[in-house]
Structures are given as structure tokens and as C-alpha cells.
Amino acid sequence: MSSDLETSYLADGTTLRSWLLSTDHKRIAILYALAITAFFFLGGAAATVIRLELATPAGDLVSDEAYSKLFTAHGVIMVWLFLIPSIPSVVGNFVLPLMIGARDLAFPRLNLLSWYLYVGGGLVVVAALAAGGVDTGWTFYTPYSTMFSSSSVVLTLVGVFITGFSSILTGLNFIVTIHTLRVPGLKWFKLPMFVWSMYATSIILVLATPVLAMTVLLLVAERLFQIGVFDPAHGGDPLLFQHLFWFYSHPAVYIMVLPAMGVASEIIPCFAKKRLFGYRFMAYAVLAIAGIGFLVWGHHMFVSGQSPLANLVFSLLSFIVAVPSAIKVFNWTATLYKGRIRLDAPMLYALGFVGLFTMGGLTGLFLASLALDVHLTDTYFVVAHFHYIMVGGSVMAFFGALHFWWPKVCGRKYPETPARLAALIVFFGFHLTFFPQFLLGVQGMPRRYHAYPPEYTVLNVLSSAGASILALGYLMPLCYLTWSLIKGPRSEPNPWGATGLEWETASPPPTHNFDVTPLAPDDVYGYTPEYPARHEQHSGA
User: Fold this and answer.
1) Residue 470 contacts residue 433 (beta carbons within 8 Å)
2) Measured between alpha carbons, how far is 79 from 256 in angstroms, rounded to an integer?
3) Strand, coil or helix: what is 510?
């Protein structure tokens, strides 16, 4: 074993107790990664059964009740237990202190507590789904969730409530860390774009998540004590639940997307060997997305009975929030222009993210248009749009981050050829899975049904076939990254020739990250056209 591994956080106490009680942000990030991976494959298993059912027009695999519970389980697990915490809690936890030259997060014990809250809440959710299942959908719409659904709803909501506090603590920790623990000389407009994205995400986590917590608590109280908040049978207003839920849940979209944008902003300059184009505009765009994101929740409710004036205002704001997102896409494109582009796995995932996010964003404009939304609401067009943003965007970026910082995390390289192949399989498998659903939505096929007219069969079969290809692409990294941990060749501290502070320490980093306090870089994206020879060796790993 090499000397750097012997002195790293990986070897600093190898017992289970030392890991479960560790306050090292790097170990906690790995603990998050293990838990999130388990939830990812559990949610993916539910999606597999859903697509098998939809491969034929007759509902002949599971009952209608079981199908409702399956898509609810898939949504609850993937949204609350994977998509929201994936990049902030795993990637952010590991690299954010390294990027600003800090030894750890500002509140290490609070960081460990956030992991326990996340795992505890996640286990409560899984127990509820296993005990009897929930058939409300991941949105828990009232009055259905208060009047007709099973008793497991309360337990599921309690689990979501607990995981919400994990998000709040993580966001608070990141905000204080970025404000107080930057290395001397690292001013705001010298920060990596990933740090900017985590800062904006943390603001949303701290401000929006309490709204969800209060909403969930009111829903639980109504079910247990028949308090008339949302249930019209007790004098409540079911639309109030939608307003409160979407006031959190639309900003939550940016909890998933902003970190992904930060990942792309780190990978693309590194693999194009060019300075990030329009750095200040991108920083302001991140903050603008976080701010305007709080003002557009009503576009989820165009057909719920809002006034025409409210619909018009929310439609306009929905188009406005697309502007800062478009700025980022144009800036990534300009960064690529005339760059010396290297199509290694992280870059393929980053480019895949840009393409899928752009398509998802453009289709969102259709749903922001009042007349079109009336036709497309609750069809498979919404399902496809959501997955292009959340899964095609966030998951592609998560895998890109995983491959980009993998040598830093474990000090080993992964085999580049299967990694590139997996990225391509995921990209094409995703399109085959979800593009036909746009067509199904335009033709009027409603979501949440397990049986459908025969004329929709071909597109559904294509979608199910794509899902099998997509599953293969997701399983491949699990195999070759596990191999890398055991037999992968050692990695030098900076195999990509990147410029961030995290690459100035050993791979894996020592327990306190840096043996000597690093100097703030003059230009965090100060890339030169020369491509380091050491990077060329990585593809042969």
C-alpha cells in the first residue's frame, strides 16, 4: 500500500465504529454515497416493473392498485432519497471544503447528524412502502391523501419530514463554510462555479425545505386528528396543499439542477482546456435561478382553477426563469468553441447533461404556455419533460462528477474504455426511453394508468426497450468502479491537469485535507491550450 493511502482518511481508523462516528466530511460523503446508491437501485427496481407492465396495453402484470403503489414508491424514493441529496450530499460534501482550501465543513458533528437523519428518514419511508404501500403519487395531493389512501401515508410523510431536516442542516453547513472557511485570498469571484452552485442550492434548502416540513406536518395532523386544513370534508382547502407543496417543490427542481450545472462548469473547462466563458455572468445566473425559482410554483396549477391573471403572471415568470438557464448553456457552448476537447468519460457525461437539460428546458416552455398546458397536463409529455431535467440532467451530471473526482476520492483510476461506453449507453438509452413519451403525451396518453389503448403500444414498447438499455448503462459503472477500488492503478494527485485547489493535495486526501494551507489561485479556470501528458496516460488505465 502506498504511503499516501496509509496516511489518508481511508486508512485513519478502519473499523465500522470509526466510520459511523466519523466527523470527516470525506467519510460522511462516502457514507451518503453508499446509502444513496442503495436507494437508487431500489427506486430503479420499481421503475423496471412499471416499464414491464407498460410493455403491453392490457394491465396484465400487476393490479391497478399495485401499479399506483409502484409509481408512488418510484417517485418518493427517487425524488426525496436520491435526486435531492445526490450531488449536494455526496459530491458537495466531499469536494466543497477541498475547493475552498478548508480542512472540513464548519460544523462536522452537524454533518454527521444530517447523514443519520437522512438514513433514518429513508428507512422509515422504505418501511412504510414495504408495509402497505402508498398510492397517492410522490406529490401526496389532497384530498386523496387525506380521505381515501392507506394508513401508510402517515409513516411515509414522517420519513419525508425527517429527511427534510437532513437537507436543512446540510444547506446551513455549506453556507457557513463558504462564508467563513475560504482560504485567505479566495474572494467571491475567484470561487469555482461548483461552489457558487452549492451556495445557491443551500439557500434554497434553508428557505424552502421548512415550507415542505410544515406542509407535511399539517397533512399528518389532519389525517390523525381530522383538523380541517386541506380536507374539504372538514372545511379545508385542497388547493392550499398544492400551493404550499409547489412553493417548495419547484425550487426543489433547482436543488437538483443547480449542483448539476456546477459539475458541468467544472468538467467542461477542464476537458476543453479553456477558461470558463462569462464567469461572472454564470455566477449571477446561478443566483438568479435560485431567486426566480421561488416565484414560479403556480405553473404547476394552470388547470386547478387559478384566476386568469395568476395564470398569466406565472406563465410569464416561467419564461423569465429560462433566461439564466439559457445563459449557462450558451456559456458552456462558448467554452467548448475552439477548445482542445478530450472526450473522456467525465466530459461525455457533462456533454450529455447539457444536451438533455437543454431539451428538457425547451419542452418546459411548452408546459409554461397556457393553451398548450391545458392539453399536455397529466399526460406523458410531463413525465418525459420531468425526466429529461431530473434524470437526464441531474443523474448524468452525478455520474460525470463521480468519474471526474473518482481518482481524488480513492486514489485509483478506472478503466476508461468501459466508462466511455457506459456514458454513451446511458445517453442513447435515455433518449429511447423518454423521447417516445413526448409523442405519447402529444397524442393524449394520460400518465398514472397501467392499461392503455392499443394504438399506443409501439411507443410504449420502444420506451420499455430503452429502459432496459438505460439500466445496463447504470449498472456498468457499479462494476468497473468496484473493480477500480480493488485492482485499479494508482492515480497521481491531478490526473486531469485541472486547476482547482482540490487537485493540489494527495489522492486520496489526508484526514485534514492539506498538509500546508494552499494559496488562493489567481484564476480558478486558468487553463492553457497545452494538454498534460499525464492525462493522456489515464485513458490506458
Assistant:
1) yes
2) 9
3) strand
Residues 178 and 107 sit within 8 Å (Cβ to Cβ): no
73 contacts 153 by C-beta, under 8 angstroms? no
CA dihedral 401, 403, 404, 409 (to 10 degrees): 90
**Cβ distance 86 to 35 under 8 Å?**
no
Question: Which grid cell sits at 384?
Answer: 418525459
Contact (CB, 8 A) for 257 and 312: no
Residue with cell 466527523: 23
- Domain of 179 in residue numbering reads as 22-538
CB 254 within 8 A of CB 201: yes
Angle at 360 between CA 354 and CA 363, to 5 degrees: 140
In a domain, 16, yes or no: no
Q: For 144-202, what is each residue's pLDDT tens digit?
A: 888 766 668 999 999 999 999 999 999 999 999 999 999 999 999 999 999 999 999 99
Q: Give a yes or no: residue 441 inside a domain.
A: yes
Judge whether 264 and 354 are in contact, CB under 8 Å: yes
Which CATH number fits the domain that encloses residue 490? 1.20.210.10
Whether 230 contacts 237, CB under 8 Å: yes
